[in-house]
Amino acid sequence: MASTGEEISDILDDQDAPILVGRPSVGCAVVTLNRPGQRNAMTFDMWHELADIYDQFSEDDQLRSIVLTGAGGYFCAGADIKEFGTVRATAEGAKEYARRVDRCTEAIAECPKATFAAVSGPAYGGGCGLAVACDFRIADATAVFAIPAARLSIVYGIEETRALYEAVGLTAAKDMLFSGRPRDAQAALAMGLVSEVSEDDALTAALRRAEALEASAPLSIAGTKLVLEALTKGETAERAERIAEATLRAVNSEDYIEGRSAFIEKRAPRFRGH
């Protein structure tokens, strides 16, 4: 897998990597967790690598959407518990592990692109956290969600817990975290954990949703995500400044002119992200 600073293009063809990156179109990227033999459980290094991928994608002006999925019919079984005897064997090790998970979750949640999780099979623990960090979660009938933190004597991280709470509410979040009880796709839909349960496979459905959003202005999506972040995490001076900058960037853009022209001319706009 690519190390820090490597370009995404350098890892597109590395089919043995634990994380694969593909571009089915210029505007869409697919990120695939690729350890099907371990149900795509996340290693210590993978948390860092996945965060780097989303950070790099955040700077790609051509990209509109990112779909996160898993290989072999599994989304992600969570953290690789077999590593815990080494990487989480001490208090400092546990803190560093939590920092890596939080950074990964933040990189996904704060990405200015539209983000999707295409969930087939298990999305457990940290895998559920990855899904919830995305803007939209598209499941198929095989999807199962659970957070067994209390059964492992683990305190779920603040970023993942906040995202879960925002998705399902306080009582449902407590139930998931306290009990560890699995939810199938329909139960997840009923509680607001997923956006859609598709009759197709989850990846096909997520790509369809991503394609539909290509008609939306990317600067508008990026700015709106900043506004929603301020509403959920609290408005700070830094967030207010970023929102103001995003608002000005959008209103001074060629896309703003294109949107008005397309409306007047009764045609579909052709947004370019600048």
Automatic annotation (TrEMBL):
Name of the protein in its database record: 3-hydroxybutyryl-CoA dehydratase
Organism field: Acuticoccus sediminis
CDD domains: crotonase-like (cd06558)
Organism ancestry: Bacteria, Pseudomonadati, Pseudomonadota, Alphaproteobacteria, Hyphomicrobiales
Similarity section: Belongs to the enoyl-CoA hydratase/isomerase family.
SUPFAM superfamilies xrefs: ClpP/crotonase
Alphabetically ordered keywords of this record: Lyase
One GO term of the biological process aspect: fatty acid beta-oxidation
InterPro entries according to UniProt: ClpP/crotonase-like_dom_sf, Enoyl-CoA_hydra/iso, Enoyl-CoA_hydra_C
Keyword Chaperone: no
GO molecular function: lyase activity
